[in-house]
């Protein structure tokens, strides 16, 4: 299916429970805090993250990778799941449903499915092509009242073992921010996806300051929020970061809780039906919720809904 075939699909209904990122990031930018962007991986993840955001009165961005979307049976099913959970739990805080590191095709498909925001990751493309494709995604997103995040500079550790992540080119950041109509910009400042190596050098605040001064007040995004020391995250927020992505830390908490449940042989308790997946996953969901609450406190978004 080509771009224009996808474009012709029905625009999502205006009564969606989801919002885009414009208002929440503008408020974060003005208030010097960051909105948590938490990747979701299944139904339990959705409920746990929304529970945390509602309890803390924090806006929240639910991130979905293409792999997670496939695991949850497609972009449209993710939209339906999130909105149904929001309705069931009577969620009142602002919730954006956002594609994380989407290809061009993934962003188009997710927008057609009802996502309120997308990140087009063209960082591996020649810069001029990254800009042009970002413009096309922004044009389509406007038809849906959706927002677009762009990326300049990769967040992958070089050779998987480098002590420092890639630093984005400030001139490219300026061009991306000024030429495309994006809502926010993810720029490499030494951050890395996943678990950080022991010899990681830390965030490059000089680069962050340089980028922040040159992007005309466009909200900036910090990827790889797992493993960055709290002091560095807070300083990054003070210097212009308005959205912080977290994924690995929630996955680790989820896995640890299940491991503990099984190692304690709770799943073998037939009388209590400890093998029931609802019981097996309950401590894991609580672990996600607690992790998200901790992040909300660090990011300063509590009571900002």
What does it look like?
The protein is an alpha/beta fold and 305 residues long. It has one domain: Aldolase class I (TIM Barrel, Alpha-Beta Barrel). Helix content is 47%, strand content 13%. It contains twelve helices and eight strands. It has helices spanning 3-7, 22-31, 43-56, 66-71, 75-89, 104-113, 127-143, 170-179, 205-213, 230-238, 248-263, 277-299; strands at residues 35-39, 60-64, 95-102, 117-120, 147-152, 184-187, 220-222, 241-246. The protein has an eight-stranded parallel barrel, surrounded by nine helices. The longest helix has 23 residues, at 277-299. The radius of gyration is 19 Å and the shape is globular.
Model regions low in confidence, pLDDT < 50 over at least 5 residues: 6-14, 157-162
Number of helices: 12
In the CATH hierarchy, what is the superfamily? Aldolase class I
CATH class: Alpha Beta
Secondary-structure element order, as H and E?
A: HHEHEHHEHEHEHEHEHEHH
- With strands numbered from the N-terminus, the spatial order across the biggest sheet is 1-2-3-4-5-6-7-8
Structural class of the secondary elements? alpha/beta
CATH topology: TIM Barrel
| Estimated helix fraction | 40-55%
Judging by the overall fold, what is the CATH architecture?
Alpha-Beta Barrel
Beta-strand segment tally: 8
Number of structural domains = 1
The backbone outline, from C-alpha atoms, is globular
